[in-house]
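Standup notes, protein team

Yesterday: finished cleaning the Marasmius oreades set.
Today: F-box domain-containing protein structure.
Blockers: none.

Input for F-box domain-containing protein:
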Amino acid sequence: MPPDSTTMATNGHDFSKYFQSNDFPSFHDTTIIRERILEKSSRVTRMENEISLLKEKLQTAKADLELHQSLLSGVRRLPTEILGEIFMLCAREDCSISTLPDPMKAPMLFCQISKAWRAAATSNPLIWSTFGIDVSRQPRILELTKLWFQRSQKLPLILGLRVNLDEKQELQKIRAMNIQLIKESILPNFTRCRSFTLRCAGEFDDSLLEEIPVLSSTNLEHLDLPLDLPSCPFMFQWCFHLAISSPQLRRLTCGIPSVLFVPSVWSNIERVDLRFMGLTASDVESFLRVAPRLRQLSFGLVSRASQPQSLALRGSILEHDTLRSLQIYDRFGDLGSLIDFLKFPKLVALSISGRRYPWPHGQMLAFLERSNCALRLLNVESTTMTSDDLISYLSMDRIRRSLEDLRVNKTVPTSKTLLEFLTLKSSSENPVPIPRLRSFMCSIDAVNQASHFELFLKSRWHPDKDGTNDEGTGGDSVSISNLKRIYLTIVSPVFDGATIETPALMELLEKVGKEPGGEVSVTMYRLSQTFDEDHSSLPPEPPSPPTSDYDG
């Protein structure tokens, strides 16, 4: 930018010749220029100060404007009840059995904004009815717990109690605080408790049984007790009595299998999770007889030499017509003796794990034929079940038509026989294998199965939109579903430090995952396995897909 006339000529001094050349000013002109620099510098400073002052005034004016605008905000016109409902939606993350009462989180945070917000928060008991309690982590827990109970009024409660023992904390101190907490706060309000979750990481002496009365609630519907109870008689007995004194219980997650032997309390039970405990086939039989409404059952299957003779050996079948989800962890290879006498016609989800033991193919086939169930989820993790075994189950007409979610081993590569069976050949194929398949979990060998998985994926990605005649002439027309979820583990061998890659498959998976509309979810896990001569290296376990609830 060229200098202006006042810069070039000041008080009769013309400095234009210096601006238009590289000549250094004379001594006389230098003195004058220095004076002018001081004057102009002062002027710039004054202008900067004025700008700073104007900015401060502008910020103050804006704040005042926003303050006045807030007087006409629509939030001020919301009724207290509506504001309370909004708080309920906002507090979902902060209000759970894992969240401790905290003044800096909802709902206490709402009470610190204004009188109106405080009134709205305190008048909505629902946002105060779900919270967790941990004596070891919150110094004001007794005071805050009483406040939460008071503000929840008479609503049903969803509580979580966690007992953690820090090495820096004294056991006797934590023990005394828990006694005070249970006696003064939890016990007087426990009749309102609809859901109770307990986690305990400490061992307490048996004398607590005399000091802490067993909790009970005729309204308790959901009970979640430790799956890994410490070797503590107090905790075991306390939890046992809590479980058997809740006649309205509908959901139970428990680490005490003996609770199932009290038949008088299971008339309303719908969901039971004993996955880390052990039940024999006879135990399962006895429990199914006293739980007519049971819909979901998870347990570890064990074998005892002294167990009673199974129904199968006695020539009778036990039918349960409400069970919809069954999850079995076979620990001693006793799966065949269990399913020999069972019939579940309403079963929609079946998960079985027990990799080391011989697979009871004939008994499983008979069980599925006998049940004639419309499975939607089949999850089998067994290294001894052959592809032909699985294909025979998938070919059963009822299962073939209904199955939506198929999961096989995450670390053992799937055979090309199974992939070829699931690959759609043409629109005229008869019958169509698993036409409603929407989710598939498997593992493949990068060397031998990558190309077969590509063919399977291409055939299932965009199948015939017009449907396929599934039964030939005169049969039903069955629409083939698009594959929506893929959980794939690629086992890539490593030879001399080089990992076998699968570029074509990776390109296809990337293309599928980026499809417009985000219709396909791809979860890929590459397992690089080094072949040691002594087979000493064990591969890590790939992540599992999220649990799906097919209980409808």
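Follow-up from PR in the comments: The longest helix spans residues 27-70.
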